[in-house]
Amino acid sequence: GMRRDVRILLLGEAQVGKTSLIMALVGEEFPEEVPPRAEEIIIPADVTPEKIPTHIVDYSEAEQTDEELQEEISKANVVCMVYDVTQEATIDKIRTKWIPMVNGGIERCARIPIILVGNKSDLHTGSSMETILPIMNQFSEIETCVECSAKNLKNISELFYYAQKAVLHPTAPLYDPEEKQLRPACAQALTRIFTMSDQDNNQILSDEELNYFQVV
Q1: How many other C-beta atoms are found inside a 10 Å radius of the C-beta of residue 197?
Q2: Which of 53-62, 80-89, 138-147, 196-205 has the lowest mean pLDDT?
Q3: What's the topology of domain 6-171?
């Protein structure tokens, strides 16, 4: 049946920029002053691409108990796991701590979809994808990975759009570990990345765009 709303929970280590991402989305500017945790945001249906109200929920280890965290996880229908692209330890924690916390012991079909979010791309010249791909291969519930910058407002609305899409139009994982082959969805994902990279929409990637495609 149709979902009545989408509930997005942001998790990840302290200081990776969870609150800044939410505030950048809502305020359309980088917040100079950031509270430990953002208030729950409700985006009304008429301004979302899918016309479904969307709740965005922040998490702060300092402000919330484990019980409160577990309750938020149980209410979420997609989790954005945020890491800092300049801090590999924050990526590692996604694999060792956050994914097991959310989906550990849950059957594959019932796992909550996950979006990996690499924040602070403004501080990083390369891409975190090399580090991320093995994690995406290990956990089939990861829908996609987005690198973004709360500071430069880069890929912020895209990130929340992908989170909505993961709930409303879930895709099968790109790589089926049992079949040892790419899923048809992978071709679609590459097409989508191509489209994102083809910034002037002329269906041909220039050298500059090609470079972007490889970074994506």
Answers
A1: 18
A2: 196-205
A3: Rossmann fold (3.40.50)
